[in-house]
Amino acid sequence: MVDRPLDEAELVERARHGDLEAWETLVRTYQGIAFRTAYLLAGNAADAEEAAQDGFLKAQRALGRFRRGAALRPWLLRIVANEARNRRRSAGRRERLVLRAAVESRLGDAVPSPEAALVAREDQERLLAAVERLPDGHRDAIACRYFLELSEEETAAALGVRRGTVKSRLARSLARLRESLEDEA
Amino acid sequence: MSSLEQRLQALGRELAFPPEPDLAVRPRSASRPFPWRWVALAAAVVALAAAFAVPSARTSILRFFHIEGATVERVETLPAAQERSSAGGLGRRVSLEVAERSLGFRLLLPPLESKPPAYVLDGVLATVILRVDGHPALLSEYAARDFALLKKSVGEKTLVEPVRVAGERGLWVEGAPHTLTYFDESGQFQERTVKIRGNVLLWTHGPVTVRLEGKLSKAQALRAARRIR
């Protein structure tokens, strides 16, 4: 008998039948993207952690209703994001998103001049500020689709809206961002 | 993808996210607001078990079993139970018709010569007292929601066995104390250790979670459950 990694469907099936280790493997697989999604939607780390924790707990308890053969990630993101959006509604101001303090250059990367790095950094900060000025629904769509690189289907699941709504929000948001950046230029 | 979309994607990779927590190892206790109506249901669940005890420390979860509306966890060690007498608490005694109107669904019952009264708590949990093969038994029903309202923890000496009742998923829980987790008045997760006086069969029937408790063997409980519809 040859050991092999369990695929997602097998892990889900095992978790459905009470295998806690299988469930923990699934949690660890998706906790990163789930937490970042919760953070962008809830607006602060504490609420995001609680939302992710409660979301996974609810998902574990609802595994019996998870459709066999369906993709687990959008299903988990929908549950966690719903928890995060509920907390966002009840919480106060959202924390401002910030860029990482330093960009580590990787081996083989072209090292930019200090001037070029400064300009690039300012461009990024302008773009981030423009995103933050968008209405919440549009800002969340941009955050999920581009910052987190979720698919349109996953973005729709995370925001609790139809895929068509995601498309239209993205289109309007991109248009507004272009206008905003042109005005500043 | 347009250049703006590419810039947004690149921007996302430069965002400073807080450190990612390890969610797989967290104890399942958290404070959160919770609708008051479940509090009464939780109290009823405890009342059904007929005894309270002290809050307990959490132990490692070895395995869990789940059906809609209820979860049973097997843990390494159960905390010591401190019994105290029950004060009833099944709820208001009403006719079956009133109970069904209150809960919004038809109560599942075995064929009976006459309609028994029902005990309804806060419009969400109904209990009927039956006799099964000469033994008194409590038949409780509630509509399962998005997640388990009733969570039991059991030790090694308690048998927990997945069963089928009329094709639906169920759990047979036999012997030894169970720990219940439920929401208390302040909306916090609370644990109470309770000693079940008999064995418990839990199963679902559509959107309803059904619980039959009494000094019944598995065969007796399953036979009774199949007649409950």
What low-confidence regions of chain A span 5 or more consecutive residues with pLDDT below 50?
102-111
Strand content of chain B: 35-45%
Number of helices of chain B: 4
Total number of β-strand segments of chain A? 0
Estimate the global geometry of chain A from the Cα principal axes: elongated
Determine the oligomeric state from the structure: heterodimer
Distance between the termini of chain A: 65 Å
Label the structural class of chain B.
alpha+beta
CATH topology of the largest domain in chain A: Rna Polymerase Sigma Factor, Chain: A
Number of domains of chain A: 2
Largest interface in this structure = A-B, 52 and 38 residues
Task: List SSEs of chain B in N-to-C order.
Answer: HHEEEHEEEEEEEEEEH
Helix proportion of chain A: 55-70%
Please give the CATH class of the largest domain in chain A.
Answer: Mainly Alpha
Mean pLDDT of chain A: 83
Walk me through the structure.
Chain A is mainly α and 185 residues long. Chain A folds into 2 domains: 8-90, RNA polymerase sigma factor, region 2, helix turn helix motif (Rna Polymerase Sigma Factor, Chain: A); 114-184, Arc Repressor Mutant, subunit A. Chain A contains 8 helices and no strands. Mean pLDDT of chain A is 83; it is low at 102-111. Residues 26-44, 46-59, 81-88 and 182-192 of chain B have low confidence and may be disordered. The radius of gyration of chain B is 21 Å and the shape is elongated. In chain B, the strands form 2 sheets. An 8-stranded antiparallel beta sheet of chain B has the order 3-4-5-6-13-12-9-8. Chain B has one domain. Chain A binds chain B through residues 16-20, 23-24, 27-28, 31-32, 34-36, 39, 45, 48-50, 52-54, 56-58, 60-65, 97-101, 103, 123-124, 127-128, 131, 142-143, 146-149, 174, 177-178, 181, and chain B through 2, 4-5, 7-12, 14-18, 20-26, 28, 30, 32, 61-68, 71, 146-148, 162, 169.
